[in-house]
Input
Amino acid sequence: MPGSRALRLAAVLLAILVTGGMTTSAFATTRSETQLATLNHQVLAAINAFRVEHHLVPLVESPRLARSAQQHSLEMGSDGYFAHPSASGSAFWKRIQHYFSSRNFSYWSVGENLLWSSPNVSATTALQMWVASPEHLRNLLTPGWRQIGISAVHVVDAPGVYHGLPVTIITTDFGVRR
Output
């Protein structure tokens, strides 16, 4: 009986969870965030290939923009929200400006693309998602951008809008200053 076998397996698993409740409850509420450096590089390659196809200059990785993107990806994953403004409500450009200063430059501009997917996302799929959105596509095709920071983060049990699911969150911060 396949149905009763599945029922017995479910009962055994439930019993293990119940008896191990004291040891698993602390583990279940602990979030794990992992930086995805390989995905960051793959997203950069995909964005640059897309830009070159459209006769635009490839973007150069900026450690400062990457720190801004990382801070935002981690904050969204741990606080359970998904939006360009920071958890405090401040505009995205203010966060970016903290890392990628406008001081001593006559021209400064920034933009941002975000996405999340459960449980994972590839660089190709991320690019397809942004291309399908007019606002995100506009950022990808902005000729003036010269630098980019990328942060892909995987969160095992993301709270809030992610409903405890395992998610991958990507923030890309675009910038130019001269």
